[in-house]
């Protein structure tokens, strides 16, 4: 039996849901769960056989607090070393801290993250592991790629788009949706011009600042670009300015607009995902489902889901430091866009679109892997689900956003 726990915990509502359980604790907010399980329950004979799987969705958020606050956690001193942490970052302040995520990793039975490549990046060194790399090397971490909701994102049934299409009708379907999209955002209507999109938060992780610097380097090519997203004010302004500079080629729409996002996937040919880091990423999956080829940086789940030259294009890994834009990363975007445009004008593009649309991006495969890992914990009464059972719709509310 599984008990999914994803947000904050309140002890009074900590129900006993049966003795033989696996708790899935998600991210730093639940780092205390395995500790309280031991200190408050198991010592009284409750949940004696329970196990905890700790899942990391983004290691940039760890829950670092003043070391002197340990007593507020109401835990025995023997847990102190699991929390004990030396913060090496100036911001907000260096020094000795308690670290909830560190304790979650150490006190759980198994640690999981949202893609195999992100798991290897987290173990690789201080920069990508954000100072928990040594702990993860010691305790281990397994990467399982996320799936996507293939019912909500389905070009054959999507209610937001002008015409529905599938792999057999993508060429005509996309052309009509492209013209509708161009008309909607006020760009010249032309079904033959490649349309490139970016959809995401405007912030350093997603590399929207790198993209803003790259656009002037490739905007002279025969293309249109539409950017949708909200985020840091400075970056919102940067993207809105593009539209003033390149009125016939670029649109920067600073909004959160689900309908427009669907229309963009339906009408676009290529999507840029210039993330500095990306634990799993969802937009590349959504894009592939709509026959949009992703151009992603070499990080996290992008590496696991994009096959260069087959289902998309991979750029080099970008510099993780967020203070400035590395000119090499700007060049990487520019040259990848030019490479993709060459393919757009060749017969191979249609093959790649078919490759994308043929992929099973649902939760089916990932759910099977999750099941294997959870069964390996050996909790009594655990058994595999029926083959072909779609787990995703039921689990949907427990899946974190990208
Ligand atoms: C979202 O985009 C659609 C399509 O462009 C538009 O009709 C609608 O007004 C937009 N909604 C908001 C809240 O901006």
Under CATH, the topology of the largest domain can be stated as Rossmann fold
> What low-confidence regions span 5 or more consecutive residues with pLDDT below 50?
1-13
Please name the CATH architecture of the largest domain.
3-Layer(aba) Sandwich
Cα shape: globular
Any ligands, ions or cofactors bound here, and which? 2-acetamido-2-deoxy-beta-D-glucopyranose
> Helicity level, as a percent range?
25-40%
CATH class of the largest domain: Alpha Beta
Question: Any overview of this molecule?
Answer:
The protein has 402 residues and is an alpha/beta fold. The chain has two domains: 2-64 and 100-147 and 365-398, Glycogen Phosphorylase B (Rossmann fold, 3-Layer(aba) Sandwich); 170-357, Rossmann fold. The protein has 16 helices and 14 strands. The chain has a six-stranded parallel beta sheet with strand order 11-10-9-12-13-14, with helices on both faces. It has a five-stranded parallel beta sheet with strand order 1-2-3-7-8, covered by helices on one side. Strand 9, helix 8 (208-218) and strand 10 (224-228) form a beta-alpha-beta unit. The chain is globular and about 70 Å long. The structure holds 2-acetamido-2-deoxy-beta-D-glucopyranose. The site of 2-acetamido-2-deoxy-beta-D-glucopyranose (NAG) has 5 residues, from helix 10. Belongs to the glycosyltransferase 1 family. Bacterial/plant glycogen synthase subfamily. One of its GO terms (molecular function) is alpha-1,4-glucan glucosyltransferase (UDP-glucose donor) activity. One of its GO terms (biological process) is starch biosynthetic process. InterPro entries: Glyco_trans_1 (IPR001296), GS/SS (IPR011835), Starch_synth_cat_dom (IPR013534).
């Amino acid at each position: 039996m599984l008990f999914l726990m994803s947000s904050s915990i309140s002890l009074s509502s900590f129900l006993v849901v049966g003795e033989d359980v696996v708790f899935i604790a998600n991210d730093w907010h639940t780092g205390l769960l395995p500790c309280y399980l031991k200190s408050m329950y198991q010592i009284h004979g409750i949940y004696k056989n329970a196990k905890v799987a700790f899942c990391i969705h983004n290691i940039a958020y760890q829950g670092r607090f003043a070391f002197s606050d340990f007593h507020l956690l109401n835990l025995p001193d023997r847990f102190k070393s699991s929390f004990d942490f030396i913060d090496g970052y100036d911001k907000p302040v260096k020094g000795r801290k308690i670290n909830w995520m560190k304790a979650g990793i150490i006190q759980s039975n198994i640690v999981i993250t949202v893609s195999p490549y992100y798991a290897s990046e987290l173990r690789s060194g201080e920069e990508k592991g954000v100072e928990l790399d040594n702990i993860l090397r010691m305790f281990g971490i397994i990467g399982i790629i996320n799936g996507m909701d293939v019912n909500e994102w389905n070009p054959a049934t999507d209610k937001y788009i002008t015409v529905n299409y599938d792999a057999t009708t993508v060429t005509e379907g996309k052309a009509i949706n492209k013209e509708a999209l161009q008309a909607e955002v006020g760009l010249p209507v032309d079904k033959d011009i490649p349309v490139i999109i970016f959809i995401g938060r405007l912030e350093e992780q997603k590399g929207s600042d790198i993209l803003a610097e790259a656009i002037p380097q490739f905007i002279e090519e025969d293309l249109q670009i539409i950017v949708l997203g909200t985020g840091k004010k400075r970056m919102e302004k940067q993207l809105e300015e593009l539209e003033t500079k390149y009125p016939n080629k670029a649109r920067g729409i600073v909004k959160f607009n689900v309908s427009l996002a669907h229309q963009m996937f339906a009408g676009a040919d290529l999507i840029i995902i210039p993330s500095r880091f990306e634990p799993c990423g969802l937009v590349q999956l959504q894009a592939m489902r709509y026959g949009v080829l992703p151009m992603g940086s070499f990080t996290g789940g992008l590496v696991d889901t994009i096959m260069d030259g087959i289902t998309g294009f991979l750029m080099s890994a970008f510099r993780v430091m967020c203070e400035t834009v590395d000119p090499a990363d700007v060049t990487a975007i520019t040259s990848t866009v030019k490479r993709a445009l060459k393919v757009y004008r060749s017969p191979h593009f249609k093959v790649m679109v078919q490759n994308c649309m043929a992929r099973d991006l649902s939760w089916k495969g990932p759910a099977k892997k999750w099941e294997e890992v959870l069964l390996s914990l050996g909790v009594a009464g655990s058994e595999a689900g029926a083959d072909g059972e779609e787990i995703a719709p039921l689990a949907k509310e427990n899946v974190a956003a990208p």
